[in-house]
Write a structure and sequence with these properties.
The protein has 4 helices and 4 strands; from the N terminus they run ααβββαβα. By secondary structure, it is an alpha+beta fold. The chain has one domain (2-113): Aminopeptidase (3-Layer(aba) Sandwich). A hairpin with a 2-residue loop joins strand 1 (34-41) and strand 2. It starts with a helix and ends in a 15-residue tail after the last helix.
């Protein structure tokens, strides 16, 4: 239920069912190579972050594929601590870059407050 609540937040247009959310979490956890973190409160998972490792022209880089905090636990620093853990692990592995697709609005503000900057070299293009 935690993951369903995260994915069904007001910031997203799509409404995820528990089955879809569990499938997405399972895909992210089993993706190779990759790293994952879970934030727990009293033993219950309330947030997560998944990073894929990819090879680019300058070596390995991190791709933040998912980060989420249960709505009841948002605005308490859990997302910030997850990002700190992500950054620390990437630094330890000597991975210099972390990229992520961020939707405009609240998420954009959150990432900006946590050290992320807009890329000047890329634009997201979509075919729908």
């Amino acid at each position: 239920m935690v993951y369903q609540a995260v994915f069904s937040g007001a910031g997203t247009k799509e409404r995820w069912s528990l089955k879809q959310a569990e499938k997405r979490v399972s895909q992210a956890l089993t993706a190779k190579p990759g790293l994952s973190w879970t934030a727990c409160v009293f033993g219950q998972p309330v947030g997560f972050a998944f990073v894929g490792l990819k090879e680019g022209h300058a070596g390995l880089y991190g791709d933040l594929t998912e980060i989420g905090v249960h709505p009841y636990f948002q605005r308490q620093g859990i997302g910030r601590e997850l990002l700190k853990s992500v950054k620390a692990r990437l630094e330890k592995k000597k991975i210099q870059s972390l990229y992520g697709l961020v939707y405009r609005g609240t998420a954009e503000k959150f990432f900006g407050e946590n050290g992320f900057k807009r890329s000047k070299r890329s634009v997201v293009m979509a075919l729908r």
